[in-house]
Amino acid sequence: MKKLFDLISSMKLTAVLLTIFAVAIGVATFIESDFSTQTAQAEVYSARWFEFLLLLLAVNLLTSMIKHAMFSVKKWNIVLFHGSFLIILVGAIITRFVGYEGSMHIREGETENRITSRETYIQALFDQNGKRSEYKKVVILSELSENHIDEDVDVNGENVNISLVEYIPNASYELVEDKENGKTILDMMISMGGQGKSMKLKEGEYIESSDVVFNFGAEVHTDKKIIDIRYEDGKLLMDNPLEFVTLDMGTKSGGSVSAGEGNELKTRTLYQTPETNFVLKSILEKVSEKLVSQEVKGSRNRLQDALRMNVTYKGESRELVIIGRSGVVGYEKVAKFDGMKVELSYGAVIKRLPFSLKLRDFQLDRYPGSMSPSSYASEVTLIDPSENINMDFRIYMNHILDYQNFRFFQSSYDQDEKGTILSVNNDPGTLPTYIGYTLLAIGMFASFFTPNGRFRKLMNKGRGYAEQRNAMASVLLALTLLVGVQDGKAEEINPLIKTITSFDKEHASRFGKLITQDSSGRMKPLNTLNVEIINKVRGSTIAGLTADQMVMGMMVRPEAW
Fold it and tell me: Among 66-80, 134-148, 153-167, where is mean pLDDT lowest?
């Protein structure tokens, strides 16, 4: 038992654990850069082995404190220093298992108490002859290793199994030839509200726009006017209840199509309705859509993920493909059984807060002469009837709204500048973490003044080398003077050096106060740009010149530089 205790409390184990921790964090950074944040969490941050590693570090620290008899009044600063790490770890555990993050979207004049979670969930809604129930679970999927989802859900005493068949990261549909089961797909460009969108209308389906419905052999129930599309005698025909103004994209010739049945639907022709314009780009026959994984690096460019799921009830199975991603609520896919309907989705979920925020005004400022935003802020009102609170607050960069363990950060905004997007963080582990950091700072500071502490011993030992340091300083001073003399001679030998050092410092300072605009649209003094240029080119100034003097010299006498 003593050998085991000595091993757990040893400094060698500490070094090994810290090395593994450092390597793991480094590897996780590369995984996040090359794949996604979710993969880094699945492989490292949220992995069981990483949690076990942190537990071992905590046990190693605690047993080391016991072994070296640190729990005494005389060693209070050492106890404070080492114990702070344990408190920080407790805060991290609370954050890991209790805290969550999300985003809140509010339009001006509206009040909101719902947030969209950042975590991804498998969510199932069950309808058993009118009795509804729900099941949801956080899932973290990896692009590097095998993923496993196999859940048995009890629904009113009956078992429904939900299992993962295939995970397809960064999924998109590709059209492939399918002579046996393929259908006809119309590749269309549909413009609604001034914005065009490429859409594919599959045989047996329909697309709904703002004023009409494009129907390709589906059963549609709507009050909108329906453009029925069908194949007849090798031609694509449409029954249109509206008259169209047309434009041939090839010849640029205009025309019109009267309302009626059996009008030919031509490719590369623009059809215009009062609110919707559309073009049939091409006709794809005998094709089917296949989900494939695209190669995407990093989290910013990620596409939606696809999960091929299997739902089993009373020995019958249904396969569903659900698509979703982090921060976006997933769309449900339905599996129907005798006496049971299952709606399955993958993505974010909606969570309700015990209070609300009202967006009174969203404000955005831009750099002068540019469309680039310099800052943006949200004027909100916090409404909590249970606490009788109605408080106005301004949220902007580094000015956070804190309330009931929730923190609201300014994150983004709507393109029409009439709405805001706030990042929401609920983290009960923040307080113990801050306490831990405070105690850590106190412990470190106190160690500087402890009479028998290691820092004091090192200081006393260092005093023995005072004469050697003084001698070294004298040598360095002599070398500095020697270099200064050589620089003075260099001016006499090379007239170019005298030229570049001749620019007046005060005049160059006035030059640096001129306002300029950088490549990102930001307005700033020329001095800031000059410093950036010198740091990029050389890293520091030379010959006692300022960055303004150097850049001015480069502009006036480039041959000297």
Answer: 66-80
